[in-house]
Design goal:
- The protein is of the alpha+beta class.
- It has 2 domains: 112 residues, Mannose-Binding Protein A, subunit A (Mannose-Binding Protein A, Chain A); 85 residues, Mannose-Binding Protein A, Chain A (Roll).
- It is 18% helix and 40% strand.
- It has 4 helices and 15 strands.
- The strands form 2 sheets. Strands 1, 4, 5, 6, 7, 8, 9, 10, 11, 12, 13, 14 and 15 form a 13-stranded mixed β-sheet that branches. A two-stranded antiparallel ribbon has the order 2-3.
- The protein starts with 8 loop residues before the first strand and ends with a strand.
- The relative contact order is 0.24.
- Keywords: Signal.
- This is C-type lectin domain family 20 member A.
- It comes from Carassius auratus.
């Protein structure tokens, strides 16, 4: 399908700050292939939208809510399933410190065991988890003795603390291990390994899949009616045409 030449801006949001990144989302109310969407965003704006956290997802969802033509609209975002895996901390920090990994599976989220070692297991397991709160000059750690999946733990930490804990050296690893002694089972830390890549090169570890990824490109969909509308990220084949989220 050929895209139209005129890009119509449906809605604009004020600048938001996700981990220090100032962005303004725009929804282009038109149909594009994924390649055409990338070209349109990079020509007139910055790139397809990178979703860093729940607030970004809510803002994009709100753009879709304002489409009231009776359709079930959806829009491209900048995520795609790449050909290789990479490790990323939930808060976007660079991965500069690693421990030996065990228990590799297709879905990889990291947890810490009682001896301070790390293991990668499926992200859908439920475990205790370690949050951190960033104060001036230092981070404080809090072990949460509730069991959640890695992504639910990430959401909890972001809503109630700063994020899932990231570890940058042996000293921090020891501090997290000591704080985690109250858990008799391994607990989640903020390290994720998957093959999701973002068009602008962002290192977002936010995921909100409706199921296991099965395609290549990812878009945002509107689900439900009125206040029950919920946004989710799912996979679709490349050739499908969807509306386009751009960002400044």
């Amino acid at each position: 399908m050929t895209s139209l030449l005129v890009l119509l801006l449906l809605w604009a949001f004020p600048l938001s700050n996700a981990k220090g990144r100032l962005r303004e989302f725009q929804l282009i109310k038109d149909n594009f292939t994924r390649v055409a969407a990338v070209n349109a965003c990079r020509t007139k704006y910055t790139d397809l939208a990178t979703v860093y956290d729940q607030q970004d997802n809510i803002d994009l969802k709100t753009l879709l809510i304002h489409i009231t033509d009776g359709s079930n609209p959806s829009g491209w975002i900048g995520a795609e399933i790449g050909n290789s895996r990479c490790k990323k901390w939930s808060n976007g920090d660079e991965v500069t410190f690693r421990r030996d990994f065990t228990s590799y599976t297709d879905s990889r989220c990291a947890s810490m065991s009682a001896n301070g070692g790390w293991e990668f297991v499926t992200c859908n397991l439920t475990r205790h988890f370690m949050c951190y709160k960033q104060d001036v000059g230092r981070a404080s750690y809090t072990l949460i003795l509730e069991t959640k999946t890695w992504f639910d733990a990430q959401l909890y930490c972001r809503e109630n603390h700063t994020d899932l804990v990231s570890i940058h050296n042996e000293e921090e690893n020891e501090q997290v291990k000591n704080e985690g002694n109250k858990s008799i089972t391994p607990f989640w830390i903020g390290l994720l390994e998957d093959s999701v890549e973002w068009s602008d090169g962002g290192q977002s570890a936010y995921r909100n899949f409706t199921g296991e990824p099965s395609g290549h490109y990812i878009f945002l969909i509107k689900m439900g009616i009125g206040i029950k509308v919920k946004a989710a990220i799912i996979d679709i084949p490349y050739a499908t045409v969807r509306q386009d989220f751009a960002k400044f």
